[in-house]
Amino acid sequence: xxxxxxxxxxxxxxxxxxxxxxxxxxxxxxxxxxxxxxxxxxxxxxxxxxxxxxxxxxxxxxxxxxxxxxxxxxxxxxxxxxxxxxxxxxxxxxxxxxxxxxxxxxxxxxxxxxxxxxxxxxxxxxxxxxxxxxxxxxxxxxxxxxxxxxxx
Length: 152
What we know:
Helix content is about 70%, strand content about 0%.
């Protein structure tokens, strides 16, 4: 009887061993799946942190660029205001004074010289030149019109 009991105990132990091995394999599969899921979550978290860091960097660059553009715009507005003031001042001065003609404009406005006149042919080599080289009398310059004075 002891032998039968020992055989039954052996069969029971083998069945318990099979169940334990099956449970062990089940737990190992679950552990492997949990490990894979944990690794996936860790990588996902790492990607999320990297994306957040990159987004933060881009935001800082955009803010810096916007600040620079704002400064450039402010400078341009100041220059525009200054130019407008200068133009207004020049316009006011121009309205007060009559337009002045520059020296270059006066030279351009001067009439062209008339073509040289032909001299009469000379009869002798030793003819007196006094008559031909005498300066021409200057035309009288008209005096500016006199302004009427209010006192009389």
